[in-house]
Amino acid sequence: MMNLLAQTQWWNWLPEKGSTFTQWVDPLFYFELILSVVLFVGIGGCMFYFAWKYHHKNREDHPHGSHHNNTLEIVWSVIPLGIVMFIFVWGFRGMMDMTQPQAYSTEIVVTASRWNWQFSYPNGAQSSMQDGLTVPVNQPIRIVLKTPLTDVIHSFYVPAFRIKKDAVPGRYNETWFKATQTGEYPIYCAEYCGQQHSQMRSKVRVVSEDEYYAFLADAANFLDNDPPAVAGQKVFAIKGCATCHSVEGKPGTGPPLNDVFASKVTLTDGSQVDADENYIMNSVKNPSSQIVAGFQDQMTVLDVSEKELDALIAYLKSISKHYVGNKE
Amino acid sequence: MTSNPAPIITDAFGHPRKGNLSRNYLNESKGILSWLLTLDHKRIAILYMVGVLTSFLLGGIFAILLRTELIAPGTTLPAVGGINTTSGGADAVWSQYNQMFTLHGAVMVFMFIIPAIPAILGNFVLPLHLGAKDVAFPRLNLMSWYCYMIGGLFFLWTLGGGLFVRLICKIFGLDPESFGQLANVGLDTGWTFYTPYSTWTSSSVISATMGAFVLGFSSILTGLNFIASIHMLRRPGQGWTKLPLFCWGIYATSIIQILATPVLAITLLLLTAERAFGVGIFDPAKGGDPILYQHFFWFYSHPAVYIMILPGFAIVSELIGTFSRKHIFGYGFIAASSIAIAILGFLVWGHHMFTSGQSPMLSAIFSFITFSIAVPSGIKIFNWLATMYKGSIRLDTPMLYALSFIWLFTIGGLTGVFCATLSVDLHIHDTYFIVAHFHYVMVGSTLTAFLGGMYYWWPKMFGKMYSERWARFGCLLIFIGFNLTFFIQFIAGSQGMPRRYADYPAQFHIHHFISTIGSYILTVGLFAVLFNWIHSLRRGAAAPVNPWGANSMEWQAPSPPPTANFETDPIVGDPYDYSHWHWNEEIGGYVLEEMTNDEIRNSKQ
Question: For domain B43-376, which CATH number applies: 3.40.50.720, 3.40.50.300, 1.20.210.10, 1.10.599.10?
Fold first, then answer.
C-alpha cells in the first residue's frame, strides 16, 4: 500500500503534456475543476451550515419563511447559464482546432483491428504495435484511421496528446496532432473491442526530424530487401498476428502457428487438411472457411498483399519442424 | 422513535381507530395466488420490490467480482469454465471480465435503476398522493410486473441458458453447434450492445436484447399508467399546483418512458434481425452503418438517464421539504425544471458520440443543448438549499440520504460539465472519468434517493419503524464507501485510464486499489441497510400514521394502509403546508388538528 502511494504523482489530474492540444484542454479542464471546487464548497458548505444552524429545537416548529422569489430564481438560472455558455464557446474553439488537420501535414494511416495497431507511413514503411508509431517532433501529423470491414469499432487515444478518435469499420476517420516533446507516450484503444481490448496498447515515439527520416528509410522496402522468412516475421508483427497466434506452441485466441506448416490440421467438422501454401493463403484471405478444432470463428480479414503473403508463408515454413523442403 | 414501547394505533387526528385494526393490504388475503393475481398497486409495488432488489443483488455481485479483478494489474480471479477460449490463460480471464462488466451494467440499468423508483415507490405512493384507491389501469399495472419478470427470465437465460443447452448436449451426445445461438453463453457486448461487435460476438446477445425489449414494455406500461392516473384521479380540489413534487418528477419520467422506450425496442429488434437473419442494418460488412446504431441507441439511452435521475429529484424534493418543516422553496420552478429536463433530454444524445466521427457542427449543437441542462439541474439544488434556509431541520435517516444526495449529485452534475465540453471530452471520453461521472449520478444520486425514499415510506409500506441508529450507520457507510470507490476514478480517468479494461498499466494500480477497497465498504453498508430492513420487519415498533409530519395525503392513510387506501376521505391541502400537524409524544408521530369545514376550505386556497 505504502509502495503504491509512493508512486509518481498519482494524485495529479491530467497526464504529461505531449502536444499542442494541451493549450486547449488543460487550462479549460483546470478552470472547470476550480469552478467545480468553488461551487461544491459553496453548496456543500451551505448544506452543512444550514443543517447545523437550523437544526430543529422542537418537533412542533413550522417556520414560515418565504417560499417563493422570482428574482432569486432568475439570478440562479442566468448566472449558471452565462458560465456554461462561456465554457461552451471555449470548448468549441478547442474542438475545432483539434479536429481540423493543418495543411501540409505528414499523413500516417493507422489501421486498428482486433487486436492490433498498424502504422503505415508516406513512403510505404510500416511499423507494428510493439514498435509503435514513430513521428517527428513539432510537425503536424494527420492520422487517417481505418479498420477492416469485418472488424469492430476501436478508438485511437493518446492521453498525453489529449486526442481520441474512433476507428469505425466501413468509413475513414481523421484526426491530427503536433507533438511538442520528444519521448514515448502510450496509445490506448478506448472503444471496447472484445477479449484483448485492454491489451490493445501501443506507443507514440516522438523523435527529431533526422531520426524520423532515418527510421523511414530503415523501415521501408523490407519486403524487397530482406530474405522472405525475415520479412515474413516483420509482416507477422505488423499485421498483429501474434496477439492471437503464438509461435511458442501456446494456444491463445487462435491456434499457435509454429510447427504448423506441412502438418495435418484438424478442423471443427472433424476433417483433416494438409497445412500447405494453399491452406495458409486460404486461412488469411477467407479465415471463416477453415476453423481449427477447438477455436472460434472470429478472425478479421486483413488486407494482405501478395508479397506480404509470400513472406508470411516463408516465415511459417521457417518456424515449422515438419517442413523439410518438401511436402512430405 | 423506536424507544416508544407501545404506540397507540390512531387515525390521522390522534383518535384511537375503530374497527379491525389488523386488516391491511398486506394481510387482506393470503396465499401465493392472492399476490400473483393482485391488482392492488401497493402489492404490485411489493412484488416489484422483491424482483428489483434481487436484480440489485445480482448486479452487485458482478460489480464486486469485477472490482476484485481490478484490484491489481494482470489477472486476479481464476478463469471459470473457459467458455470463449481453449487456453484457460489470461485471455480466458479477460473474456470473463468482459462478461462481468457487461452483465453488471445490463442488470443494473435495465432491471434495477430504471424500475427501482417508479415501479416500487411510484406504484406505492403515487395513488396515495392523489388520494386515489389505485392507479388508473390496475390490470395494466399487473401486466407491467409480468413484463418485468419475463424480461428477467430472458436475462437469466442469457446468464445460464447456453450452459444448460451444452449440458443437455453432453448428456445426449449432441453437437452444441447445431443449436446455433441457443448454445451461446453470457453477454460480452457492454450494456450498450454496440454494433458491429454485438453482431459478431458469440455470446448470447439475442436473449439479452429480447429481455431488454420486454423490460421496455414494463417501463412503458408503468409510465402510461402514471400519466393517466395523474390526469384523471386527482381528488376534487387537488389542482396541478397541489400535486406533491414527487408526482411532478414521476410525471416527467413517465413522458420519457412512453416516448423514448419504443425507439430502443425497435433498435433492439433490428439488431436481433441482423444477428438472427443476417439483415444488414448496422453491420458495415453487410452494408449497414454502425454509427446509425449509436444514434438510435442513445436516442433512447440518454433520455433513459433522466428516467433514472428524475425520480431521484422527485424523492429528494419531498424529503427536503418534510425534514426542514418549511414550505418547499420555488415549487413551480422545481416542477417545471423536471419537465424541462425531460424535454431537453431528448435533444442531447449526440454528446455520447463526440469522438465517433460525426460532423463538428452536430457535436457543437449537442454540446450546446447539453450545457443548457445545467440550468434546470442547478435550479433544483438551489431551491432545496433555499428550503433548508431558516427551516427547522431534523436529521432523521431519510434526510441524511437527501443531504448525501445533494453532495453526490453536485459532484455528478459538475463533472457532467467537463464531459459536455467539446475539447475536454475528446480527452476524457471513454475513460474512468466518465465511469465515475455516471456512477455519481446513477448510483450516488439515484440509489441514494431510492434508499432515502424507502426509509421515508417504509413506515407507511410495512407499518413498522426501524432502528434509527443502524439506519444512520448504514447511510454513513454507503456514503464513505461510495466516495472512496468512485472519486479516485475521476483522477484515474483524467490521467487517461480507459474504460472496460480487464488489465491496465501499473501507473493506475493505486487508483484501482483504493476503488476496490471502497466498493467493499459500500457493500457492507448496503448489507447493513438490508439487515436493518429485515430487523424492522421482524422486530420493528408499530409505526404511527404520520411519523414525519408531512402533509401529502399518504400520511392520512393508516400505516400500513388497507386495500382501499383511506378509511375516511383525505383532506386535500397544500402538500408543503405542515402547520396543521402537531407532534404527539404518546403516539410517536404527528396528528392533524381538527378543522371546521371552513378552515379546510381556506387551507385549500
Answer: 1.20.210.10
